[in-house]
Amino acid sequence: MGRARGTGAVTVVLMMLGGFALAGCAAQPSAPRAERPRAEPPAAAPSRVTSTRPASVPPSPDAAASLQARSRGQVDVYAADRPGMLSPVVKGFRSLVYVPNSESGTVDVIDPETYRIVRHFTVGALPQHVVPSWDLKTLWVNNNRGNSLTPIDPRTGRPGRPVPVEDPYNLYFSPDGTYALVMAERNNQLDLRDPHSMKLLRSLSLPCRGINHGDFTADGSVFLASCEFSGDLVVLDWRTPSVIRHIHLGHMSMPQDVKLSPDGTVFYVADMERHGVWLVDAATYKVMRFLPTGRGAHGLYVSRDSRRLYVSNRGEGSVSVVSFRKRKVVDVWRIPGGGSPDMGGVSADGTKLWLSGRYHGVVYVFDTRDGRVVRTIPVGAGPHGLCVYPQPGRYSLGHTGIFR
After folding, report:
1. pTM of the predicted model, to two decimals?
2. Position 218 confidence tier, pLDDT thresholds 50, 70, 90
3. Is the dihedral of CA 300, 302, 303, 309 positive or negative?
4. Which of 400, 85, 69, 17 lies closest to 219 in space, CA to CA?
5. Among 1, 37, 153, 343, which lies 20 to 30 A Cα-Cα from 8?
6. Taking a C-beta distance cutoff of 8 angstroms, is the pair 15, 46 a contact?
7. Are residues 264 and 12 in contact, defined by beta-carbon separation less than 8 angstroms?
8. Residue 55: is its pLDDT beyond 80?
């Protein structure tokens, strides 16, 4: 989300669980702890561990098999996201870009071939993200303050009747498609709903404030979510549902987007106040280290070849390109004259990165081959979580397009 609010208090929590992004402009922050960042921090170390499950619990068979496969270099969780690998479900859908304008309460629909707005319609108050459903058949506009989800038929690009849903800041789906996971940000809870009717089934109260983004482990059993207003991460068993671990990143942290590395071993977590990304071990949930990218690090997107992570630095108008293999920034793309790149997605063929310009009322289109901004498109006020659709993949895990 990243509205300009203060962050909460702090401590660092590291944990263990047997089951289971040219350096930027900001100074290197310290390991998660209740003090101001230093230029050369030590490795992250725990000051407190919070868990609802014993550390000695053995890994599940699926988790163990996944770990063995990763050790042999056989895992790429984005293997089904290559150019051209469109599901039969979406092959007849027109390629469009859906832009929710949070301040306008509208959605602009852009033709990616002509860069022109081909449709514009009103939705509920404070639309935050446009999210593909697990079965790829519906796009959901998250009307945060309007307490509703507006469905869009991706075959036509037209909206349907809004569905009442309380506090839908963001929306994810369980890997098996049984649940819609609503990030109820102001309520500080995760709501599990029917993925079609959106009827509330269960709710999980969280020990943090402002839950907003997340991603799943390679075997899909665990969900790592960020809580921006208290500087926390929470590790969740979505089936139970229950909180497995609670990680405090620090009073200077405002964690945002979360993305799993292609090999399934590391979670990358953007931190808008620390100006970079945290690397978190996906098996132990230990905070490994911090990687500076640029001011206001916000959104995270994986290239179509699974080699690079694109980090939108909203506070300085740039995109940092991180090598997954090297685990370092290898390039920086800058918007001429500056800007506020926020959320978005990679085109189906992988040649374009589409990002909303949150504070400039525009959408930026980057050429991923050379980092040039090839187009700036005026849209409504406060554009946020735009969705490029359709995209390759077998099913959607939510947000603006996490496909597996």
Report:
1. 0.84
2. very high
3. positive
4. 69
5. 343
6. yes
7. no
8. no
